[in-house]
Amino acid sequence: MITDKGTSQMAGRFLARSLNDPTRLLIAAAAALTILSIGLLGAGVQSGILANNSQPTADRDWSELIASMDKMHMAMEAVKRSGNSDVDFVRLMLPHHQAAIDMAKTQLLYGKDRQMRRLVQEIIDQQSEIELMQRWLRQQEPASTKENQTPVADSGNRDQRCK
Length: 163
Known about the structure:
By secondary structure, this protein is an all-alpha fold. It has eight helices and no strands. α2 crosses α4, α3 (60-77) runs antiparallel to α4 (85-110) and α4 packs antiparallel against α5 (114-124). The longest helix has 33 residues, at 21-53. The protein is 79% helix and 0% strand.
């Protein structure tokens, strides 16, 4: 964690000079969601400890939140290292962002606090960040990969023309 103000400012200047606007946006969004996830994870761990020390809970909201986390962990563990740190970062962030949205939807269903509901809606509205990352990943695919992909099935008219 960066605690020195000078180090933090230097890192900010480096990012401002080194990265283009979409990349800065992506990093800022990832940092914000990571901070939020760490807070939620900490709360989850604490709640899990409390639940394990008392009786097991079968609350639907809790089950849905844990299911979202489990799905995220499985998806992140399935990501194969590409050797490109930018691609790897985005591939790992996609399930992370999706889990945040899934958890936010659960909270919207069960939560009561108005302030938290506003925050949850802002998280859900970040679906566009997932779409941005997906577009960026498609742009990173090498031409050979695009050429070797299975083409989309058509109605078969093309085959008739070739005969």
